[in-house]
């Protein structure tokens, strides 16, 4: 006799919970210890999940690490999506919220993969398509954050590209010179620039 669909839900939920444990452990490894140290064994130790369970979902180390960064990127994009209530139409608040997304485990973990991809054609090939997809999602989230009126400005796309590249460049310096990013003098420059662009 076939069991009703609801009987499988606990198993599905456990599988999903296990996947989240694995991905969060992988992100922590990347962000805190770097790409070289983010091995299947290290992720297994952090997550408490068996090696077999990890390899069942992620056949290779790079598959796991890319999925981990995408997982956290999705979470950070969701954070961006939640910003409009307090940032729509407010250029300064939008700039601050965007800058905030470049500090924490997502940027650190993503940076580790970007650098590793330079010397790994297979990793670069696997990483490029999801990075391009994520870039589109992030730009859409930024437009939502600024609000429809500002996002409709003819120079908004140029401003978004300029802000993202500039902020990423400055955020890189925090990897070797930790400090309070909320006090970065570039914040005021970005705000003035954005206000001028969208005037």
Write the layout of secondary structure elements.
Elements: H1 9-33, H2 40-47, H3 51-57, H4 61-81, H5 84-87, H6 91-100, H7 105-117, H8 121-146, H9 148-151, H10 156-172, H11 186-197
Specify the CATH architecture. Orthogonal Bundle
Q: Which CATH class is shown?
A: Mainly Alpha
Question: How many extended strands?
Answer: 0
What is the H/E order? HHHHHHHHHHH
CATH superfamily annotation? Tetracycline Repressor, domain 2
CATH topology descriptor: Tetracycline Repressor, domain 2
In helices, the fraction of residues equals over 70%
End-to-end CA span: 68 Å
Gross morphology is: elongated
What count of structural domains? 1
Helical run tally: 11
What structural class do you assign from the helix and strand content?
mainly alpha
What integer is the average pLDDT? 86
Name the descriptors:
Tetracycline Repressor, domain 2, mainly alpha, elongated, 0% strand, 74% helix
Protein model, in words:
- This protein has 199 residues and is mostly helical.
- The chain has one domain (5-197): Orthogonal Bundle (Tetracycline Repressor, domain 2), CATH 1.10.357.10.
- The protein has eleven helices and no strands.
- The chain is elongated and about 55 Å long.
- The model is unreliable at 1-7 (pLDDT under 50).
């Amino acid at each position: 006799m076939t069991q009703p669909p609801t009987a499988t839900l606990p198993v599905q939920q456990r599988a999903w919970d296990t996947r989240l444990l694995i991905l969060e452990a992988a992100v922590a490894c990347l962000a805190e210890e770097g790409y070289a140290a983010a091995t299947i064994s290290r992720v297994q130790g952090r997550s408490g999940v068996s090696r077999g369970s990890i390899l069942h979902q992620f056949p290779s180390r790079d598959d796991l690490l890319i999925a981990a960064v995408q997982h956290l990127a999705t979470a950070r994009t969701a954070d961006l999506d939640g910003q409009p209530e307090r940032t729509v139409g407010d250029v300064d608040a939008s700039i601050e919220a965007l800058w905030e997304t470049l500090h924490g485990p997502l940027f650190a973990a993503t940076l580790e993969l970007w650098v590793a991809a330079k010397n790994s054609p297979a990793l670069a090939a696997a990483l490029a398509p999801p990075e391009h997809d994520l870039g589109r999602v992030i730009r859409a989230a930024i437009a939502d954050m600024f609000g429809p009126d500002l996002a409709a400005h003819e120079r908004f796309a140029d401003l978004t590209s300029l802000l993202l590249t500039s902020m990423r460049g400055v955020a890189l310096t925090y990897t070797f010179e930790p400090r309070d990013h909320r006090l970065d003098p570039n914040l005021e420059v970005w705000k003035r620039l954005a206000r001028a662009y969208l005037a």
